[in-house]
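Working notes for the structural subgroup meeting. M.R. asked for a predicted model of this chain before we commit to crystallization trials. I am recording the input and output together here so anyone reviewing the notebook later can reproduce the run.

Input as submitted:
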Amino acid sequence: MKQRKLNGIVIGSGVAGLAAAIRLARLGFAVDVFEQAANPGGKINEFRQDGFRFDMGPSLFTLPHLVDELLDDDLKFEYRKLDVVTKYFFEDGTRLSAFSDVDKFAREVEAKTQVSEKKIVAYLKHAAMVYQLTAPIFIFNSFHRLSKLLTWDNFLKALQFARLKAFSTLHKLNEESFKDPRIVQLFDRYATYNGSNPYKTPGTMSVISHLEHSLGAFFPSHGMYEITSSLVEQAKRLGVNFYFNTPVEKVLVEEKSLKGVVVKGETKDCDVLISDVDIHQFYSDLLPDKKRLTRIEKAERSSSALIFYWGMKKRFGQLDLHNIFFSGDYEKEFSYLFDRKEITTDPTVYVFISSKENSDDAPDEMENWFVMVNAPENVGQDWTRLKLETRRNILSKLNRILGEDMEGQIVFEKTLDPVKIEDRTGSFQGAMYGPSSNSSFSAFNRHPNFRRDLKDIYFVGGSVHPGGGIPLCLSSAKIVAEMVEEKLKTR
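Returned structure, recorded in token form:
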């Protein structure tokens, strides 16, 4: 008798949901993806207007092999390793190019600051060691399962735990490593990659600098949305069905076992369910659970973002793909974000210009600017006021540092704030990365990729283990697929 094909349902088509759908299909499942939005991608999305194309969310591409391994050879897209990862601008007039070549970057720092070349090389060597010790446990593994955590290899790594600086803050580690406050600030910045505070997040967060400078930062030839479009094409090739503008209304469970989901009032049975929605939304709307919801709401949220998409009528030769204009008082900036839930009058400004790499993203002799400042999660602030004030402060800062009349260069503008982020992506209160990583135990407090008490329900995406950002979201899908495959072998 021919065995029936197993059915898998994925809720949400962010990068983790797409990766999970591909991996499920390769395990032999018939896969349906239900997405509440009109198109796939979640935070990795784009829009086009007035001749400009803008990537709306993530703008940095690291660990590209995690995407490559999901795609057939003919679907793999081109991406270029960046020679200059980021250009940094400081209030005192210092300008630094963060070259991807470690030695070249170290020489640049020594030439322009009080920090020696050897200090930079030693710091990044330490960051590489942190990655080697932590990635197999905290990034590419579900340490919530004892069988995966209690291994001889992990035991040997645990013996070196003191070297990780887990009980030091990232800022303290950087202060001990560098005497120049500009370089301390530069390496403090990596806390923001998962929406955290460098004055609170553990020193292990130095690992992110290793991803950029030692493993490399990349950019897809046609923009970040190429990641989404390629994954969707791969999924369709494997027979995955997509249903857009089609939110799942409820997850059905009976006697601690998955039964299916409700979509447009109809019950759809499935053997495996993978949720790529924010974990708060899952427990508030899809499978109500007050106890778990209370625990989630008590956790400190990550930061969010306030983004201005500007079409600029000229090109700026002094800028690169990624540019950072630092705040004059970094500690005050994070105090405002996490304590006062406000944006300081002097925020650090990130400017991403994809037309530097792909000229098709803007009309001739123009540029597309993605201008972002870190913002608190939405707790009812007056965002109309905050947007106006922050826009004015950004322009003042850019005018001062670049010596330009920036307002006069803007020919197109659109904004995205935490309220819109929550509405568009389902991220609770607009927090971009779910819970923050502002303590040494944050990683252990993230929701696991599974439920011990509910069979066949799994979780992927930035609000669960191992966290936010493209590489970690892709890893969550890989972890879940491995668990599903293990279970298939026992059927």
